[in-house]
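Quick one - first record:
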Amino acid sequence: MRYIYKQLREFIGSTHTGSDWRGSGGSWGPKPSARRTDSMRAPDSSSTTSRSSFKSPFPAFRWRVLLVGPLLFALTTTCSKPSPEPFIAQLKSIQSRQREKAAGKLLKYGDEVVPRLIEEADSEYTRVRFEVLRLLGRIRDPRAVPTMIRALDDKSSKVAALAAWGLGELKAPEAVPHLLRYHREVSTDLRAEVIRGLGLCYAGPDTVSIADADSAYAAIIRAFDDTETKVRIAALQASHEYGYRDAVVHLIRRSRDETAEVRYVAVQALGQVAIGRTRRSSGPVDAQMRHNIIQALVVSLSEPNQSIRTKAVRALEMIGAPEAASQLEKLRETGTVEDRREAGRVLGNLREGNG
């Protein structure tokens, strides 16, 4: 810092040869020894030099001050940034609140702290590895991919689940063959994050081998029938990345799932699949499949859950299904205020479309 101040002092002082930047006693002004000379006086009317030829050194001096000010602020700010080491040490704390607070501080360092986090990913403390993997997933720096792949084999299933989650956040296609080794894990959290990651890490046939892509999608389809709700939801989300390829039958079955959250996602997906509005879609489904989807959505109009009923109505609107008019009319007559509003709007649109 002393060197920086010295250079700045010379830079500023170079524009004002008759005075020191600190002056006498640290103030602006001429040096005590400096004397006013004829060369420093402004010319009078009797001078041979015109007033227009006189130039003061002070405008250039002020210009340099304005230029150096922001630079000096940036340098002092950078140099004063605290080291992340105290926060990394706090990740060992047995107090979860203290660890979370330290993690929040480390997150502000962004990709600057990634190399240190990668080092700590092999810590002997499970709680440190947990916080580190979570931070790496939130920062989303590709340098962390190899570390996350290794962490899939962590003795703690929670750490391994965070590693799978982080790989999904990074959408790392190179992780697909590694994730495939863990899709049958006993841990629900790990299994769910692996299935989710198999979907998110797939970025098209050019990024993953055909064999790995087929194996990943087969694992996702099997997860539709998992005993755990969290895994079934992950399967629905992951299959979206593949365009719900050959998944309509599974979506229809999940639209009658025992868990409302699963039903909601499935009903939403059915409307998108019917008209081909999905990622990597080959277009709308055939007539028979369209009929099956509409029938499943009509059943969902009797849902006890309001949000699912509304989603079913909107899916039928998206498809443009006049064959569901009688069921929509019934919902408008007997449903809630929201049911009547939604069903009435869709019926009006269907009539306009037929007209």
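second record:
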Amino acid sequence: MVFFLVLGGLLITIPNRSYIIIDRLSSYVLDVFGQLYLFAGLFILCFLIVLALSPIGKIKLGNSKPKYSTISWLAMMYSTGMGAGIILRAVQEPVYFSQHPGVNIKGSEETHALMMTFYHWGFTAWAFYGLFSLFIAYLLFVKNKNIQLSHLIPHIQNNKINNTIDFITVITIVFGVVSAAALGVSQIESGISYATDTAFNFSLILCICTTVFLAAIISSVRGLSKGIKNLSLINIGLTLVLMVYVFLFSDQASIFHTMVDAIKDLVTNFFSLSLAFSPYDFSKDFLSDWTYYYWAFWLAWAPFTGIFIARISKGRSIRELITGVLLIPSLGSFIWFSVFGDSAFQLINQGAVDINAFNDVFTSIFVFLQQYPLGSVSVILALVLLVGFLITSIDSAIYVLGMFSNLKSIHPSRLHKITWGIGLFVITLGFLVLGQTGRAENTLEAVQKILVISSLFFLFLCFIFILFFMIDVINQYRNNKHKNDT
């Protein structure tokens, strides 16, 4: 905890110097290891699919029945896994790809744009989450261990190595969460500024950040069932309301056809996209700004989200967990981005807005919603949804990090939750200050560079974890089969 508080203090007090160091390190990582991120994403997805289809997929993660209904389970999973990001990118990303496809395309620009958005927010993203939810659920409910990922490598008896693995895990979780928190706070500030037509200073960002973290700490202290579950269901409900609202005032047939075409293109070209092969041989700059960053982001969120998904997945089989994680949330993202992305294309093609109206990642959703009836009301609803998603994500992270501080129980104490809540708040504030420096264009640029660095070590650990997990789970399957035969 002291390490993170000191780091947050450095980002706040010397942001310019900190940014120079971060910029140099991220450039080096992308030059040397960028392609490794692509390979890892595809490999992990294929690994999970094969595992789910194999006899090993029948292994149950615990002997009890699932605690949460399928709807609650999926709602908590999606709300925690995607969070405020689906609001941030709902309009801006599809529109950007329609105007900057990255490669020469022969078909529809709109279809290509949605395909790229699906690629970044679909199967591979959830494969990262699924991998670590599987690891943790297996440790907790099959091996009766705690959440330390170092337990996946039982042959290592060196405490220093085990502690290093667990420390890297915690660092990855913290950077992933505070990155999302910083982006979410920045978008809320932009939304308030847009709705009130007022330019605020950094004091508003500080006020929003404090309020969100205070609410998240209170929610986390209330516990998983009362806090996160209720917030997740509210978030999903409001998401559906906002999406249906946009859908009803748009060309539904166009949305459906563009979505179906984009899914077809995604499936057909998935391997070319995943490895940046022709015809999707994107430039290094394009990959650095988009795919490398996204894979680093999902990887940074994977241990935190994986631990949370594992915690709510007790009693389900490996096959059920993998299928639920890969398919349902991906389909949810496809529908979401189709409704908002295609509707934005319609507004531009009709001349209702300027072609550059959705360029700003932080205000694009608000500019978009303002074009519809009751636009001001929908803007407020989007802001409420943003706050809800952000609180849920931070709430879940506090809970998970509290589990690391109290390894003897999967129910962290109030003190651990409050302490981690304060620590995350300080580092998030540091990220926000870093994003306000003259060297960083905005918070998003600062976050992109930090995540590429912080996820690298964890990327290497992924392959080691997979190897030892397979050794153990194959032995577990053989033992189970032997018991059933006798």
